[in-house]
Design a protein that fits this description.
The protein is of the alpha/beta class and 387 residues long. The protein folds into two domains: 12-258, Aspartate Aminotransferase, domain 2, CATH 3.40.640.10; 261-386, Alpha-Beta Complex (Aspartate Aminotransferase, domain 1), CATH 3.90.1150. It has 13 helices and 15 strands. It has a seven-stranded mixed sheet, sandwiched between helices. Strands 7-6-13 form a three-stranded antiparallel sheet, with no helix packed on it. Helix 1 (12-22) runs antiparallel to helix 8, helix 3 (55-65) packs across helix 4 (83-90) and helix 3 (55-65) packs across helix 7. The protein is globular. The two termini are 27 Å apart. It binds pyridoxal-5'-phosphate.
Amino acid sequence: MMIPYGRQDIHQEDIDAVVEILRSDFLTQGPTVPAFEAAVVERLGASHGVATSSATSALHLACLALGAGPGDVVWTTPTTFVASANCARYCGADVDFVDIDPQTWNMSVAALREKLEQAERDGRLPKIVIPVHLCGQPCEMKSIGELAQQYGFKVIEDASHAIGARYQDEPVGNCRYSDIAVFSFHPVKIITTGEGGLATARDAEVADRMRLLRSHGVTRDPEQMVGESLGPWYYEQVALGFNYRMTDLHAALGLSQLRRLDEIVVRRHELARVYDEALGDLPLRLPHNHPDAYSALHLYPVRLCLDRIDRTHRDIFEALRRRGVGVNLHYIPVHTQPYYRDLGFSVGQFPEAERYHAEAISLPMFPTLTQEQQGEVVRVLHEELEA
Ligand SMILES: *Cc1c(COP(=O)(O)O)cnc(C)c1O
């Protein structure tokens, strides 16, 4: 049996919560989605919350609500899941990337500053920048927020890995230094709704715009209508929206999971501490904890010090899989994907992200990982890496 790299943690109370919805009047568009939104907003100290069918759909709505369209440029990090970049392409905007920091593996603030200076000279400043809190470790949001002020771009935090994380002792998602923060509730993430996402927003108008576009661009609110209501049946489609709604079944699971958020993140920190101690002597670079950040520890990647190992990255990765350790690699740099190469990107453009990809291996990290399983991961790593 392969030990996976991530896995959901479903308790009886989660199952009961979903079953209760199955027996209720509303499977979707009932009271549970707004209740989930309110609970997340309260938990994160946010102002507005919009639950969606996925983080991908939330990222798309976020880009639309902030006005991204043809002729605009959106920047993100190459070391992320493709959805962080694709959301801009859905809107017809162009994408560009900012290389990662060799220490934190998040978007480099130094590289961002340098690229902004150049973009200003070229008259091609980004409309939106999407920092990604890789592995659950918050980006340097204060600096990014200051640059946003200075250069006039919007900020969407891709916080898909980071519910439960803290930055400068405040919850990630309160939008102190951003316009919108997006969370994912896919089963490998910190808490799950099956499929699902949620965007928190600083401004009410931005949240309203996301809500409108989440459901076909159709409104029943006279305030949002162009014409007069013709009767109680009346609704208007005022924009081209989508069906990106979350169902009440998903929201019930999310509400139930949210109650265990702290416990789950604490457990992830316990597991990280064991890895930190047990792997410190091996030719590996372990995750760095930025002093401003309390990570949600979605992932625990290690980087092979290949100058001290006479085997290849692939060889070690395959050996771990063969021996039942379900390692993974987060991520292949987005600009090297065929779709992005067809848009003009090429290998070599973002060397820190490419170096990361050539060395990184994500170890199993999830709350139900047992002491025995983690011990096995550590033992196999020692056997493979000790010369
Ligand atoms: C998982 C993930 C997404 C997409 O989340 P879905 O809920 O599966 O759509 C987006 N960005 C990052 C960084 C992710 O890890």
